Every structure is written in structure tokens, then in C-alpha cells.
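pls design
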């Protein structure tokens, strides 16, 4: 999952001024919009399990084509790095699970 923030200049309905707003995205969906002037915001409900499912599905579905492309581009480099990638995979999965747990805690606390 990827969380990003973007600033935009909008008219705030609460303070009735044109102010900068911070727009927070989780993957490609808006999760929160907050006015910088009055600090009021709008939080949008995001189904984290659905977001996670879509992301994992896309990664699994595209893995064979990505590996084939990598193999065709640089065979020797692919074969040399393959053992290291197999060994480091459990650590990478563990790190990703920790990151996902942080998102679940953050968005469950904020949206409950």
C-alpha cells in the first residue's frame, strides 16, 4: 500500500476562505481532505481489505510477465540475483506485513 499527500488550493466551506488543503491518498483513493486554515477535514471510508486484495491480486497476476521480461532483458543478471532474491523474500514479506498492519491500525482508529 502507498500513502501519499498532495496540496491543493480550494474554497473551504467551513471557514469560507480560499485556503490550501492537504489531500491524503491511500493507493489511488482519497482518504482525507483537510483545510490548512481551519484544520477541519473530511475523512472518507476506505475498505482496506479490498484495497489490499486488489493490490496483491495485481502483483500476483503480473509476476510471471515481469519475471519473463526481466529474464529476456538480462539473462545473466537475472540468474545471478535469483538466489539472493529467494533468500531475502521472507524478510521482504515480513516487512510488508508490518507496514500493512500499521495502515490497518491507523485507518481503523481514525474511521471508528
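designed seq:
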Amino acid at each position: 500500500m502507498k500513502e501519499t499527500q498532495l496540496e491543493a488550493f480550494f474554497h473551504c466551506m467551513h471557514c469560507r476562505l480560499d485556503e490550501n488543503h492537504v489531500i491524503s491518498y491511500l493507493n489511488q483513493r482519497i482518504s482525507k481532505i483537510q483545510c490548512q486554515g481551519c484544520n477541519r477535514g473530511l475523512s472518507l471510508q476506505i475498505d482496506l481489505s479490498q484495497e489490499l486484495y486488489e493490490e496483491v491480486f495485481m502483483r500476483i497476476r503480473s509476476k510471471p510477465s515481469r519475471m519473463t521480461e526481466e529474464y529476456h532483458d538480462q539473462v545473466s543478471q537475472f540468474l545471478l540475483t535469483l538466489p539472493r532474491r529467494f533468500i531475502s523474500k521472507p524478510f521482504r514479506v515480513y516487512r510488508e506485513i508490518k507496514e500493512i498492519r500499521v495502515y490497518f491500525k491507523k485507518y481503523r482508529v481514525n474511521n471508528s
